[in-house]
Design goal:
Order of helices and strands: HHEEEHHEEH
Strand order of the largest sheet: 1-2-3
Number of strands: 5
Distance between the termini: 40 Å
Largest sheet: 3 strands, antiparallel
Shape: globular
Strand content: 5-15%
Structural class: alpha+beta
């Protein structure tokens, strides 16, 4: 919620949308302030922020409670995040651009590999945002099932 208000305030003040890297930096700075004062409780969550920059294209940032933020091609947070990060790093060695379907397949494959589970379409919730369709869209169960079928046929 705070990120949305920061973005809205920036747009009101400067007349254009805030870039994802600047928003990530602002959120990291706000998190870091909590670590400096004894009477403030530090935030205990990481935030993954995605956005589109007209000059740089898609951007992905991760902030932590200490105020550190970094950009990534792919990242994970939560339980077993290091295993997921290692898996993604292995799969994304080159500089090739992935299609939307390949990106969804990589996300599902990462979850499946790290958690050592076979998922059903009802077990997953996947959302996508593309340059052509910048609205946040949650995939239907049928679309997720089609992706799972595609993954199973490849294996």
């Amino acid at each position: 919620m705070r990120a949305r208000s920061e973005a809205a305030e920036f747009k009101y003040k400067y007349g254009y949308d805030i870039t994802p890297d600047l928003l990530a930096k602002r959120m990291a700075n706000l998190n870091q302030v909590c670590t400096q004062k004894a009477f403030m409780r530090p935030l205990g969550v990481s935030m993954i922020l995605i956005g589109w920059d007209d000059e740089r294209g898609p951007q992905l940032f991760k902030t932590d409670p200490a105020g550190y933020f970094a950009g990534y091609r792919a990242t994970a947070a939560g339980a077993k995040h290091q295993e997921a990060f290692n898996y993604l790093e292995k799969k994304l060695k080159g500089d090739e651009q992935l299609s939307t379907d390949d990106t969804v397949e990589l996300a599902i494959g990462t979850l499946s590999s790290v958690l050592a589970a076979n998922f059903k379409a009802q077990d997953l919730e996947v959302a996508i945002v593309t340059k052509d369709n910048p609205k946040f869209r949650v995939l239907t169960v049928e679309e997720i099932d089609a992706e799972l079928t595609r993954i199973a046929e490849r294996d």
